[in-house]
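Re: Re: ligand-bound prediction request (bumping)

Still looking for help on this. To restate: I need the protein modeled with glutamine bound, output as structure tokens. Inputs repeated here so nobody has to scroll up.
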Amino acid sequence: QASIASIKEHDGEIKSVLHVDEEGALAHARQLDKRLVKGNEELGLLYGLPAGLKDNLVTKDIRTTCASKFLANYDPVHDGTASKKVKDADAVIVAKLNMDEFAMGGSNENSGFFPAKNPWNTDYVPGGSSGGSAAAMAARHFYFTLGSDTGGSIRQPAAFCGVVGLKPTYGRVSRFGLVAFASSLDQIGPVTKNVEDSAYVLQAIAGHDEYDSTSANVEVPDYLSALTGDVKGLRIGVPKELIGEGIDPEVRDAVLAALKQLENMGATWSEVSMPHTEYAVPAYYLLSSSEASSNLARFDGVRYGVRADNAANLIELYKESRSQGFGPEVKRRIMLGTYALSSGYYDAYYKKAQQVRTLIIQDFNNIFADYDVILHPTTPSTAFKVGENVDDPVKMYLEDICTVPVNLAGLPAISVPCGFSKNGLPIGLQIVGRAFDESTVLRVAHAYE
Ligand code: GLN
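Reply:
Sorry for the wait, this slipped through. Here it is.
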């Protein structure tokens, strides 16, 4: 009830929420209350916690639109694995959250319905694409939210909104029931107010799943016991490409201050190099758009969602449904991806981007041979103004420089708040770990926080 009241009272301006399942949430909460009264049943790890889920996570009987007009009427008949796991852990799904359409964007301004705003200052964007998940946490509508991160979409909005966002290792959390954007990059993860909560939620959603063949059959450790507060002897690498030129001095100073704090706690750090960083954004946009062009082929006006009603034949039905259903950014990505995969251009673009991906993975491997974690800002600057970047997609893409390398390499990374800019907006610090070593990422973030 408190969660629903918070949404009603405070979300009018923030617009982090797309749909509230008031009836379903209250019924579930009442069921949970009964179990508490009985007292002899084991309660789940997330017992009674109100949650919000990004609207690209499929939820049984709760509308799931991906913030797209195309899916404006889509009510799934099943739960995705992450949705099911939070329910199995006794959390209550209260609402579905705003996002950039099909998770394409970094400001929430690509929502097909209305943009979410940054609760710290509503003249500014909350980030994206999981902007609703981060803004809702900053507004404290929920105890936790889930987002998805293909190129930074959990970490960047978490940084802009002053909350904690974790992208797990690729394969750590099942993608079954996450509407696919770029299948080789997408991961689901928690957005929370602190690191301990992040560990709880990851514990509940992680693990192998027979419904997702890319989910990893790797043991899930006890993340809570990793939160020791100890960073003595920890070796931190700080890539010079992500702390120097192009990073706002206020952001750099906040990150250097955080490094000082970790040093005082017994960690050491040195500057390292990721020489292929400058190619990460173009490689990411080629690969993610290529995969998107294929994944979004399923939206044909026949199988899901909204169907154009004035079409004379099948081809026209496809064309009309897609023309009317998709927003401009989604169309841009589909065109870019289709072009990159087309005969004659494949070698020059898609294949080359895959080769760059391998070089970036090697950059990470070289650093992790000598360091336990990599640390740098989550974003080059704090949140930008609503409208500031909308007319310049390339400028918007370049904002992703600190987050996309991690997705290309499939690594776990967290964004934690590390201070404020002079104009009162949160700054985010990013900690990147080895594959499947979320424990160390969480430990360092928790010790710092
Ligand atoms: N901003 C990036 C993009 O637009 C990241 C998106 C994401 O992680 N879903 O592709």
